[in-house]
Amino acid sequence: MSRLLDVSPEVRAEIGDDEAVRLVSGETGPQMYACASCRGGGDTAVEETSALLYLAQETAVLAFAHARCIPSQVIPVSDAAVEPLIAAQQGDPSNVPTPTVVPGGPVPISITGSMMVCDGITYAALVVEPGAAVARPGTQGARDEFLSLLSERGFSAIPTPDMTLPPLLSGWSVVLDGGFLTSVLFPGASGRTEAWWQAQIPAEVPEAWLSAARGNGVVLLYAAPVGTIGIHTGNDELGAALREAGRRGLLVAGSVPLTGA
Q: Are residues 55 and 141 both part of a single domain?
């Protein structure tokens, strides 16, 4: 069965015309997938879908996403970032993270929506992890400054995410538009508000996530260095990974006010 699959010229150039034809015809690749952007389920037979190619120096990983979430494109990643992508595809070919840019350098990250029960209250959460070490801006060093950079912006170390509510991040905001996630903003240079993460197309979020975000007025934003959290399909697995990161002193977080609706 032919698929509603868009393979951009850039992706086609990397995988070859023959493989692109096989993908569109349904000969290769899964029909059902978890969107690489919003993590929601997708079906290439009934909804417009984008082919994404995560490209490292030595290898590449193909993923699918809702066309409404992100266009078909080649996404450069580090070799360190592509290893968990390959491991995830061995267990679930559709389970891949979403790249964007973190303050501190053009490093791809995964950003995953989740639910977190903290001190008995259920919160909407976003978990971010870079695909490589994040150097301090303007430096050439290989030292990972990701946590230091975030600490300077108000994030705090969270050893016990189940019990410790992260501090409010002044000037930050998670922006919703019509129930869709559009961006995470932070106070940039000279007091100007800038986008820390920007959805290319407003991202659909689960109703439970939306309800918790609106009910509490904040979204918990967790972050850990490359290779710390990994890729997880469920809240329980992700929560366990966050707890382990906190135990190791590798988890920082902040409570980000919600704006829009």
A: no
